[in-house]
Design a protein that fits this description.
Layout lengths: L2 H11 L13 H4 L7 E6 L4 E6 L5 E2 L5 H12 L1 H7 L29 H8 L7 H15 L9 H9 L2 H12 L7 H12 L2 E2 L1 H12 L14 H14 L5 H7 L4 E3 L4 E6 L3 E6 L10 H13 L6
Helix pairs in contact: 1-13, 3-4, 3-11, 5-8, 6-9, 7-9, 8-9
The chain binds 6-diazenyl-5-OXO-L-norleucine.
């Protein structure tokens, strides 16, 4: 696929933003212009990246941060330790539901991509205080997105923190049930910040390319994460990356992907492509409305369904 073809698919799918709404439960996200659609594709075989539309617009990473933070938690603690604390099962419940901890006998968060599991994952990041933990997360995001300009969006962070009471309840519930250790306000502060960093579709495509390329950055040949952790993360993206739309997405699109309420989508096609999409209007599950339509067309065009 070349830039012209990608531009045509963006035009074809642009109007789907009208079928969704920007996230309004976080005031700073409610202000984002819904009329945006952009995509970047890192082609591993050609070792080059194409981008079109709003692929360089900065937007809040939100739940896509759950991918790099899980990778960093595995680097810090090892695979076994992380998955003793957090399961790897789909839930069928909304991303912020307390049921995500209650439906199995083990009393663990069901997976690292629902909020409970993500907060538990953040609690595992090494660092002597919240500031050092967030600095490590930010440095890792810059490295894996090959984007030194990633910064904290202070307005989104304040908004997340002010409106984050459901996340607080999930975290205190986990602490009270010995599912997490540490200082809850400090863990939440790091979680709110990790959701509030500004990324672009280009940077997300590079992150996805590292996952698709078994943990090695294709732009310089350096290993960033282990092959095993890249594989595990892609598996969890397949079962839980798009919340309770994950099953439908696997059936109709068929690639490991992760969404965020900032309107981002990250998709990793093993050994072939890393993809980043941005369009802020969300469908009823909280996933980018036009983004999913565009990704569906691109995957079909590239014959990239992994199943
Ligand atoms: O925890 C929250 O509510 C948000 N900061 C992140 C949630 C999110 O992106 C869910 N996504 N689809």
């Amino acid at each position: 696929m070349n830039k012209t073809e990608l531009t045509q698919l963006i035009s074809k799918n642009f109007d789907y933003y009208q079928t969704g709404h920007v996230a309004d439960y976080i005031p700073a996200l409610a202000k984002v212009d819904p009329k945006q659609l952009g995509m970047a594709i890192y082609d591993l075989q050609e070792n080059h990246l194409i981008e079109a539309g709003d692929a360089n617009v900065r937007f809040a990473v939100e739940s896509m941060s759950k991918v790099p933070v899980l990778l960093l938690a595995i680097k810090d603690n090892g695979i076994d330790h992380v998955f003793q604390k957090i399961n790897t099962e789909p839930t069928g419940f909304a991303f912020n539901s307390i049921m995500n901890m209650e439906i199995n006998h083990r009393k663990h968060p069901m997976n690292p991509f629902v909020n409970a599991g993500a907060i538990a994952t953040t609690s595992l990041i090494n660092g002597k205080n919240a500031e050092e933990k967030f600095d490590r997360i930010l440095a890792f995001m810059k490295e894996i997105c090959d984007d030194p300009a990633i910064t904290l969006n202070e307005e989104i962070y304040q908004s997340e923190s002010r409106t984050g009471d459901i996340n607080r309840s999930l975290a205190y519930y986990m602490k009270g049930n010995q599912m997490i250790e540490g200082d809850v306000p400090a863990i939440l502060d790091t979680y709110f910040k990790q959701c509030s960093v500004n990324v672009t579709a280009v940077g997300i495509a590079k992150l996805a390319a590292v996952l698709a390329n078994k943990g090695i950055a294709p732009w310089n040949g350096q290993r960033i994460v282990s092959e095993k952790s890249a594989t595990i993360v892609k598996s969890i993206m397949t079962i839980a990356g798009l919340y309770d739309e994950s099953g439908e997405f696997s059936v109709h699109v068929g690639v490991p992907a992760k969404s965020g309420v900032g309107g981002g989508l990250l998709a990793a096609v093993p050994n072939r492509y890393g993809m980043g999409v941005f369009s802020p209007a969300l469908d009823s599950f909280g996933n980018s409305a036009a983004g999913i339509q565009l990704l569906t067309d691109v995957i079909q065009e590239l014959d990239a369904d992994i199943f």
